[in-house]
Specification:
- Helices cover 60% and strands 0% of the residues.
- It has 80 residues and is mostly helical.
- It is built from two helices and no strands.
- The chain is rod-shaped.
């Protein structure tokens, strides 16, 4: 960028120094954001790989039912 006519040499040097510091900070922020995104993706992949697959429905039906979990049937009262 060319120096504007109304800037003195000192003002222009200060502006350029400020712009360089700003550019450096923006580079640091972008690098940090990329690292955070990478860490999140890595954590999500690790979480997903640790999950066990859900059993198929056919496998559930093939197992004998547990008598403790059978639905209760309504019994008629014998007091009639």
């Amino acid at each position: 960028m060319k120096r504007p006519a109304h800037y003195s040499d000192a003002d222009w040097a200060e502006y350029q120094q400020g712009q360089a510091e700003h550019d450096d900070l923006m580079t640091q922020v972008a690098a940090r954001e990329a690292q955070i995104e990478h860490d999140l993706i890595t954590a999500a992949d690790a979480y997903e790989s640790g999950l066990s697959p859900v059993p198929k429905r056919e496998a559930d039906l093939a197992r004998p039912s547990d008598p403790r979990y059978r639905p209760l049937t309504r019994k008629r009262s014998r007091s009639r």
